[in-house]
Amino acid sequence: MILEGIKEAVRDGARVARACEIVGLSERAYQRWNKDPDGGEDRRKGPTSPPVNQLTEEERVAVVETLNSWEFRNQSPKQVVPILAERGTYIASESSMYRILKEEGLNAHRAASRPPRHTKPREFVAQGPGEVLTWDITYLHSPVRGAFFYLYLVVDVWSRKILGGAVHDAESSAYASALISTVIEENGLSPETVVVHMDNGSPMKGATLRATLEALGVQASYSRPHVSNDNPYSESLFRTLKYRPEYPSKPFQSLEAAQQWVAGFEVWYNTQHRHSAIGYVTPEQRHSGVAHAVLARRRQVYEAARRRNPARWTGDIRRWEAPDVVYLNPEDPLNTVTARSASRPAEAVA
């Protein structure tokens, strides 16, 4: 019985309003039934006869035939209804036409007007530095209203280290090509084993950059159009950059001023910023391989503190750890959770 089912759910900790919502019963009806000693049965009657304004089967057939006719097959009811009205014809309302199309499985995009579908980028796994890189462009305000400087940044997915950056006065595939080439050369990367992920903008898909990547033997990966989550590492980096207290509140006065500020940010980010996703070590520590020693030292400090005063600790010490594997566009969302959870501190009180 519905009433008993709601009571059982409430006994198990559910709220009355939510239990009533799930079974499709108003809370007021439940209260009324609950007062009746003989209640408990579903006494909702519902309509006993069809609505007087319901379309007949012949009228439904006429709607389907009209909308599928050669004249109207490529037009929506929004277009068909006024055309029929101009001719002095009425067969059904616009909403009725849409309802019938849905019930008949005919309310769908035609092939020529169907929105394009973009498949999610394939998963890439980074187990060390120099394996998976992402890059993107962001705007920096210039002194000219409506004009911008353009910041290009390349980041290593595994270590979060900025491997290269440049500020230019235009978006250009040539500038991007030069930056990627410099990053690979200066960091001693093996092009055949590097994946470079990027957005779908024109600088990313320009012929110059494509030719450079192909010549180097670098594998390119692209985000879906207008899907920022496909390139989260670059997006996160730009957010950190623009939320720095030192980020200018006014436009950069020159291209050189912007380049100078970005150069200082790169040094701070790589060598001083403790990144939450890699166990609060700096990207440089992670990239150079000393992060494990840094994290081990922190664990020793916490273990010593607990030994000195164990009464202050209700559980284990904080887990000073960082993920060994980092995923870009994981096929299994649990991979992202697992990778992140390894860098989160365990619950502890000190």
Which short descriptors sum up this protein?
single chain; 4 domains; about 40% helix; about 350 residues; Nucleotidyltransferase, domain 5; five-stranded mixed sheet; 7 strands; flat; two-stranded antiparallel sheet; alpha/beta
CATH level-3 fold name of the largest domain: Nucleotidyltransferase, domain 5
For the CA atoms, what is the radius of gyration?
A: 31 Å
Total number of helices? 14
Strand order of the largest sheet: 4-3-2-5-6
Instruction: List the domain count as a whole number.
Output: 4
Distance between the termini: 52 Å
The quaternary state of the protein chains shown equals single chain
Measured by DSSP, the beta-strand proportion falls in 5-15%
CATH class of the largest domain: Alpha Beta
Count the beta strands: 7
**Residue-averaged pLDDT, rounded?**
86
The CATH homologous superfamily name of the largest domain equals Ribonuclease H-like superfamily/Ribonuclease H
- Characterize the biggest β-sheet: 5 strands, mixed
- Tell me, briefly, the overall form: flat
Helix content: 40-55%
CATH architectural category of the largest domain:
2-Layer Sandwich
Question: Any low-confidence stretches, pLDDT <50, length ≥5?
Answer: 337-350
Going by helix content, strand content and strand pairing, the class is: alpha/beta
Order of helices and strands: HHHHHHEEEEHEHHEHHHHEH
Question: Could you characterize what this model shows?
Answer:
It is a single chain. The chain has 350 residues and is α/β, with parallel strands linked by helices. The chain has four domains: 2-35; 57-109, no CATH class; 124-272, 2-Layer Sandwich (Nucleotidyltransferase, domain 5), CATH 3.30.420; 283-341, no CATH class. It contains 14 helices and seven strands. A five-stranded mixed sheet has the order 4-3-2-5-6, with helices on both faces. Strand 3 (148-156) and strand 4 (162-168) form a beta hairpin. Helix 1 packs antiparallel against helix 2, helix 5 packs across helix 6 and helix 7 packs parallel to helix 9. The longest helix is centred in the C-terminal third of the chain and has 18 residues, at 291-308. The radius of gyration is 31 Å and the shape is flat. The model is unreliable at 337-350 (pLDDT under 50).
